Amino acid sequence: MQTQPEKLMITNTHVAQCSAAPIAEVKSWVKDPDSPKLIDMCQAVPAHLPAQALLDYLAEVVRNGDGAGYTSWEGIEPLRSALADDINQRYQASITADDAVITAGCNQAFSAVIDALCEEADEVIVALPCYFNHQMWLNIRGIVPRYLTLNTDTAIPDPAEVNDLISERTKAIVLVTPNNPTGATYSPECIEQFYQLAKANNVALIVDETYRDFIDLDKPPHHLFQHQDWSDTFIHLYSFSKVFALTGERVGAIVCSQSLLKQLEKIQDCAVICAPHSGQLAATYGIKHLADWKREKFESIQQRGEALKQAFNHSDLKYKLLSVGAYFAYVKHPFAEDSMTVSRRLVEEFEVLSIPGESFGEDQEQYIRFAFANVDESRFPDLVERLIASQKSL
C-alpha cells in the first residue's frame, strides 16, 4: 500500500520564514529543566512574586468577579489616569488619560502601532542589537528593518546614521531604552536627537520604555513629552509586567496622538477587544499603592547588576561585558564559533542558559545576552567559574 504524502497547510510566507522564538528554542536544549545546577538567564522575568498587598487585592478581585468582564477598548479610566499622573510626575509632562490606551502587554502595544503605521515593504529603522520580538513582528508583516550599527564601546546607537537609512518607505524609528538586550540606557540628549531627526523626516519615533522603572527613578529618562507637539512624532510604549511582577497578567500601554488612537481602536477590537481586566486592576493598584515597593525592587536590581560586574572582573574570564543595566548584560564571547553554537554548548555542557546574539539582528554572532534579574547574585561566582571552564577549547 502506497503511503500518501502528508498534506501541508499553506502558510504565510513571511511567518514561515521568520526565525523561531529564541527563548523556546534555547529551553528546548535543556536536558533536565528541574536540575538544581541549572542557571537560567535566558528570559527576563522578575525574581519575586508581586507584593503581598497586590496578591491580596487580586484575590479579592477574583472572588468578587470585578475583573471578569470586558472593559472599554482603551482600558479602564482609573489606570489610564494613574499612568498619566505617573508620566506627568516623572517626565514633567502634561498628558491626560485620553492620550493612552492599555494593551495586552508591551509586545501587543508594539505590534498594534506597527500595524497602524506600516504597510508591507515599508521600512523601520531599529538599533542593533534589536529586541527579537520587534524584529520578528517586522518580518511577519513583511516590513524591512534598517539597522543602526552597534557601537562596541558604548552600546548606544548613533543618531548621525539615521540620514543614511531614511528613505521614502521609512515609517518609524524604534528605540528601546533601557535596552533589551544590552541593558544600555540612552541619554536624554541622544533620544532628543533621534526625536528631532524623526520630526524633520516626518516619521514616527517609537520608544519602548518597558524597563524605565529600573533606572534612576528621580530623573526623567527624556524630555520628549515637554514638546508642545510631541504627539505628532513620539509614541511611548510601556509595560507594567516587570515593575509589578505581573508578567502573566499581560498589561502594557501606548501613549500617542489622538489620530493614531483612532486607528489603534480598530486593531485593538480585532486582536484582543481589551487588555485583561484583572491585570488592568492590578496595574492600577500598583501605581497607586506600591511606590515604596517599586523603589525597593529598583535598588535590588541595581545591586544585582553591580554584583554581576564585579563577578565578571575575574582575571581568568575571557568573556567581556559590553554593557549591563536594567535586567540585562550583553557579553562578547571569546570563541571563533557563532553565538548560537556557544549558547548551545553552555546549556548542554555547563547548564547555563543565555540567548545567542543572532536572535538580536545581523552581525551579533560574537555576543550573548544574560538576563540576570531572576538569578540570585550569590550564583554569579558559580556562573563565572562555569564560563571559565567553557574556555578550555581556546
From TrEMBL:
Keyword Transmembrane helix among record annotations: no
InterPro entries noted in UniProt: Aminotransferase_I/II_large, AspAT/PAT-like, NHTrfase_class1_PyrdxlP-BS, PyrdxlP-dep_Trfase, PyrdxlP-dep_Trfase_major
Cofactor section: pyridoxal 5'-phosphate
Gene Ontology MF terms in the entry: pyridoxal phosphate binding; transaminase activity
Domain of life: Bacteria
UniProt keyword list: Aminotransferase, Pyridoxal phosphate, Transferase
Domain Aminotransferase class I/classII large: 37-387
EC number: 2.6.1.-
Family classification: Belongs to the class-I pyridoxal-phosphate-dependent aminotransferase family.
Protein name listed in UniProt: Aminotransferase
Organism: Leucothrix pacifica
